Fold TM2 domain-containing protein 3.
Amino acid sequence: MAALWVLRALRGLCGAALFLSQLSVLSGRVGSLMTTKLSQPQSTPAKGLTSTSTNTPYFKAAESTEIPPYMIKCPSNGLCSRLPPDCMTCNTNYSCIYGKPATFDCKVKPHVHCVDENNHEQENFTINMTCQFCWQLATSDYVCTNSTNCMTVSCPRQRYNATCTVRDHIHCLGNRVFPKMLYCNWTGGYKWSTALALSITLGGFGADRFYLGQWREGLGKLFSFGGLGIWTLIDVLLIGVGYVGPADGSLYI
């Protein structure tokens, strides 16, 4: 009986020792897990803070500092009524009569600053101009491209397609750039030096006028002996300064 009791006591001690060893192992694992969990939140906010501060500039709206192309032609603080047409937008006056003066309500474009006669800044103003389209303007109010490929000596006289642009200080209706058919006026082969030499030597017989294709004036000089010399001297002066040119409107070469 005593031996059986001793065996039971030893078995109980072994079980208790095994339980304590397992308990110590479990407590070590739980402590390491708690340490890991507590350390993770400390690094997460730092990472999130870095990410937020890095991405913040991308959400800012970029401020536009680009200057419109028309600002090159627009003077600053000038009279609004004298601004070039590219610096303003005007309402069409449908009641205007063609060829008659008319008033148009206009407004300056963004970034354009102008004043009135009293030096007060204004945005809305009126301008006075003739009621007509741009392609109906006088030839002195627009500039056209020239053609160097067509000759004026052909019969009938040739035309060429030109692109014309209205001058900056001229106001008109419609497109300011338009196509137009113009007569060839580049050159007919006439030389200024030849015309001047003929005017000096044989001008009294109208040779210079005949050379330039002005046969009526040539006949007049021939039968009047150069206007008794006065017409001859005047023609030498006019041809010398380039005022008298070929009859077909071409240019000297």
Q: What stands out?
A: The chain is about 35% helix and 15% strand.
